[in-house]
Amino acid sequence: MTRPQDAAPDDPREEELARRARQGDPAACHALYERHFPAVWRLARRLGTPPMELEDVTQEVFAAAFGKLDRFGGGSFAHWIHRICANVVTDHHRRRRVREGFRRLFGAEPELEGAPGPESVAAAHEAERRVAQILARMRPRQREVFALFELAGLSGEEIAVRVGCPLGTVWTRLHHARRAFVRIGRKRGLLDPEAGA
Amino acid sequence: MSGPREAPRRLAEGGGSIAALLRRVPEPPADEVAGERIWRRLLRSLPARRRLAMGWLVQAAGLASLAAVLFWWSRSAPLPLARLELASGSVLAAAPRREYRAAHAGAALAEATRLRTDAQGRAIIGLARARVLVTPSTEVALESLGAATFLRLSAGGLVAEVAPRRGGESFVVQTTRWRVAVKGTVFEVREKTPDDVTVSVGRGLVEVSGEGGVFEVAAGKSWRSIEPARFGDDDIAPADRALLGEEVRVEPPPPAARLESVPAPAPAVRVPRAPRREPERLAMLERAPPPSPPPSFPPVPAPPVVPAADPYPRALALARAGKAREAADALAVIVAARGPHADLALYDLARLRRRELGDSPGAIRALLQYERDYPGGPLSQEVELSAIELLLSAPDLPRARAQMDRFLARHPESERAPEVHLLRGNLLRGSGRCKEALPDYRQAQGDGTDDDALYFRAYCEQQLGRTADAARSLHDYLARFPRGRHAAEVHAALRAGR
User: Fold this and answer.
1) What confidence tens digit (pLDDT) does each residue in B335-350 have?
2) Partner-chain contact A41 B47, CB within 8 Å
3) Residue A194, exposed/middle/buried by CB under 10 A (0-12, 13-18, 19+)?
4) Does residue B424 share a domain with residue B281?
5) Would you say B367 and A82 are in contact if contact means Cβ atoms under 8 Å apart?
6) What is the topology classification, in CATH, of domain A13-187?
7) Distance from C-alpha of A92 to C-alpha of A50, rounded to nearest angstrom
8) Among A140, A160, A144, A164, which residue's Cα sits nearest to residue A152?
9) Are strands B108-109 and B170-174 parallel, antiparallel or unpaired?
10) ipTM value of the model?
């Protein structure tokens, strides 16, 4: 399966844009936003963010990035914002779990992400919903590697650079992530009980 | 020893139900309309978020800059704060406790000088990393100059070109009722009456605040206090921009013609930035009356040079020049010598290690040394808070917890105490100790912390089986934060509980 890659191309001009954005130049912020918005949006979705939360997550990622520009030490802005996006998504998954905890404690069933509706009748949407629900319950590092390899179609080397770990660690995480994916999917009734990775 | 592992095959390329499921997952399309919405919201919140995110570093930088400025001030002659670069038409200046006198190009303007132009008068004031064009019929006081520039505009208008502010620097124009704060920009502020103020922004971003609220005016836009919610187009006169050396986007009327129309006497015109002048403007300058009368005020000495022998300013200069490693070495020497500024140097060293050298453990060591060597020092609270932040991000949770305990024991009344209570509450809740977290959440009552504190307090109460208390806390949350970050979740929880 070949999928287009999300990352905006590395570009030395981005360091200049980041420098200007750091000085409060909104035009530079906008240029960075326009270049990276599609990638951040897609990555957030691939990491299991429900459609209803995508807008909030994306805004939070850019707000955090613009707020932390002082800590951007050069290099690839795409990789840097990728890390922020992964952290924000993880934070949202955690908050959603707290919210679901509330609902359970008050005696209600946990909310379903994107419960079946007219537009999710299509198999694609149903598959997306099930995968997102599983991803939301995986460990952040495993979720990230799984989503980037299995859904975004990135190579191991690309993932290693983005995630900031050795290639061997990517494969180890992927191995555990696949097991977790199957375990969680079966437990939640989102995968065929006989399914195996 | 095993060789490099071969990349596994993607699940979707195989067979079985998981492969089928993954193959069906569509490529998520980026929603461009949502993208536009997000950008509009981001633009509104950008400066505020920057301030929040910079947190302790900005505050520390501010303190350190202040200390450096005070030190510099104490050892040197008075700073040359402002100079009249151009005076055309009638320009009057009044030094502190003096009467108005005619002011001419080249005059030095001390702090608290008042400046007035008549209907044909114009002036350009050169400030530290900023230039201000004083338009006709204007009255302005240079109340504070230098790092914290503060101009009070009583009537008329100013067009300012301000270089991006560094940490601890500010540039503010105060009209009778509105405050215009900038980071780095070209803007015009004009007070027609106290209630009718116009701000036009040519470049950068400006924040206007007053009793009517806080507004951000972006590049290319103008704002008027009598219609604060409506933004028009930037209307800085091209000729005014040209006078400041700003690039003119709209075809301006010939600058020479404009200046020629200003009645005499036009005593002198200084070339502020000769290399950037366009041919037309050079011609204009050639036509200006040649000899410049003597300045109205005694000349101020040239900028003092920081003595090369003083290691602290030199270390700061190295850091500013991007030579982080050398700066860290220089600061370490100052710390070891325990001479003047050793405490500031220690704090600067921590910041440098964290920000520039990526050495968090080294930064923590420096902060803890500050705590040990300078208990009760001027930066002690900032140091302790920075240590907490670093230990949490390390993550070294037991030491972070111990640091929080120490901070709260030493500074129970600190304005930052609620923040630390919230952090400690979150730490305890995260490790399943809701009972211990509750008192912290109750005490986390400060700006920006109540929202989270109340929400997680409700969560902990619910976890402990205190359902009635939790419901009360959630209702309390909605009453206090109807649009809070967790409002949707609280609504959902209450709906589910009914």
Assistant:
1) 888 877 788 888 889 8
2) no
3) exposed
4) no
5) no
6) Rna Polymerase Sigma Factor; Chain: A (1.10.1740)
7) 10
8) A144
9) unpaired
10) 0.73
Task: Give the whole-angstrom CA distance, residue B459 versus residue B452.
Answer: 10
Residue length of chain A: 197
- Chain A CB contacts of B37 under 8 Å are 55
Q: Answer yes or no: pTM beyond 0.90.
A: no
pLDDT digits (tens, 9 = 90+) for B345-379: 888 898 888 877 878 888 999 999 988 888 777 67
Beta bridge partners of B269: B86
What is the token pair recorded at A89? 């998504």
Residue with tokens 């939301």: A136
Contacts of B169 (CB under 8 A, 6+ apart): B65, B147, B148, B149
Determine contact, residues A21/A65, Cβ cutoff 8 Å. Answer: no
| Token pair listed for B245 | 């050396």
Are A41 and A58 within 8 A, CB to CB? yes
Q: Establish, for the pair of chains A and B, how many residue pairs have beta carbons separated by less than 8 Å.
A: 174
Which residues of chain A does B165 touch, with a Cβ-Cβ cutoff of 8 Å?
Answer: 24
Output the domain CATH number for residue B158.
2.60.120.1440
Token couple for B488? 């949707």
What lies within 8 Å, CB to CB, of B456 at 6+ separation is B425, B426, B429, B437, B441
- Residues of chain B neighbouring A106 (CB-CB closer than 8 A): 462, 467, 493, 496-497
Interface touch B50/A194, C-beta < 8 Å: no
The Cα–Cα gap between B86 and A108 comes to 74
Q: What's the full length of chain B, in residues?
A: 498
| Final residue in a domain of this structure, among B254, B287, B320 | B287
Window 206-235 of B, Cβ < 8 Å to A: 218-219
Which residues, listed in sequence order, are joined to residue A66 by a DSSP beta bridge?
none
